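Colleagues,

Please find the record for the four-part complex below.
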Amino acid sequence: MNVDLQLEPKIKRAAGAPCCEPVVRPDVDREKAARLAEVAKALGDPIRLQLVDVLRKHAGKVCVCELVPLFDISQSTLSHHLKRLRAAGIVDSERQGLWAYYYVLPGALEDLRGWLG
Amino acid sequence: MNVDLQLEPKIKRAAGAPCCEPVVRPDVDREKAARLAEVAKALGDPIRLQLVDVLRKHAGKVCVCELVPLFDISQSTLSHHLKRLRAAGIVDSERQGLWAYYYVLPGALEDLRGWLG
DNA sequence: GCTGCAGGTCGACGTTCATCGACGTATGAC
DNA sequence: GTCATACGTCGATGAACGTCGACCTGCAGC
């Protein structure tokens, strides 16, 4: 197992030969990387990240009407962001009469957190 | 401190009044959210996420020529991804002669990891 | 000098995204 | 029934993104 990968610059070599033996390998497979990246991408917007932050800080479910005034965006745009978060499996919602309540799905951020160490 | 945010649907109310008192507040300010989102966004691509994964798994620095054959993309596209990761402050590079070596900046993912809990 | 290679940059292309206003759909109040 | 409200969806628009090939820049070897 090659721990220190600081490869010697074997500059004296035949033309066309690779600079070094390929020893690195991805540790996460393509499917897992895609899943992790999907969650990261959903969090890759300041508004969505703050949305998740607000929802996570509250044990219960939060009404959309509470979220709207927190941001300088229209309600339709906020709805779009919530839809994206739901598509990424980070939040879910529940309707009660006129209102919709959102909450963070338990364990939704677990994989990304685990990957980050 | 309102722990359970499951707001009662106070449906009996005067027209125009909000459904509930606004009690939620974002815990991360706008600037911190923007910084966290920038890192998350940089990780929001499967190739970039795998790149970081490979670099993190090796204590030393990894030559670009080792990274190219790991993915089904052109070298110019890979260079673009590495540039994005560098712009996000996640990796940095160092040239030695013909070759460029990339490495993950220590602590670059610390904030995001901390926010995730 | 010249040639070949590694890797970064540039321009172009098609796709996806964030945002908005407008509209649709339920629901509750009357 | 009618009307207002809360929220979602739709269509449009401009910006950002991922990808590529072509080109440019250094460096090593001749």
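Strands of chain B lie at 62-63, 91-96, 99-104.

Comments are welcome before we finalize the supplementary table.
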